[in-house]
Amino acid sequence: MGHNILYIEDNPDNMMLVKRALESRGYKLLEAANGLNGVSTAEANEIDLILLDINLPDIDGYEVARRLRTSTKPALAYIPIIAITANALKGDAEKALSAGCDVYMSKPINIRELWARVEAFVPAPESST
Q1: Hey, which residues does 52 pair with through a beta bridge?
Q2: How many beta carbons lie within 10 A of that of residue 57, not counting itself?
Q3: Domains within the chain, CATH numbers bracketed
Q4: Distance CA 98, CA 27 (A)
Q5: Beta-bridge partner residues of 4
């Protein structure tokens, strides 16, 4: 079982925060700064979980999730996707879930919540025996 997490995020501060938080728990973080790179990174690597910003500079996170779910790489139809977004309007969570995301988290990122959400899908390497 792997521990590779792909984070698709255009904000370098958020990327660094999540990278430090997850690497401290033993996960390996793959990074993509936009949606198209995120899709190609997911298709080219073995990924266990995807963290997905919704507001990206090229295609939005909803489109990324749809493309991942219909990818020619069959495993991407089932990889858990956690949407992490500043969008907090009514209906945003439903829109993310209907696009193919499994969980919706709002920014600012709460590290304890992030750890709990990630570990619900991919147990931390330090806690596996």
Answers
A1: 8, 83
A2: 10
A3: 4-119 (3.40.50.2300)
A4: 28
A5: 28
**Per residue in 41-75, pLDDT tens?**
999 999 999 999 999 999 999 999 999 999 999 99
Selection from 78, 71, 33, 25 nearest residue 52 by Cα: 33
Cα(129)–Cα(117) distance, rounded to whole angstroms?
A: 20
pTM above 0.85, yes or no: yes
Longest dimension (CA), the chain: 41
- Residue pLDDT, tens place only, 1-50: 469 999 999 999 999 999 999 999 999 999 999 999 999 999 999 999 99
Sign of CA dihedral 25, 29, 33, 38: negative
Coil/strand/helix, residue 10: coil
Q: What's phi and psi for 32, nearest 5 deg?
A: -140, 130
Task: Specify which residues 103 forms β-bridges with.
Answer: 82
Alpha-carbon gap, residue 129 to 127, rounded angstroms? 6
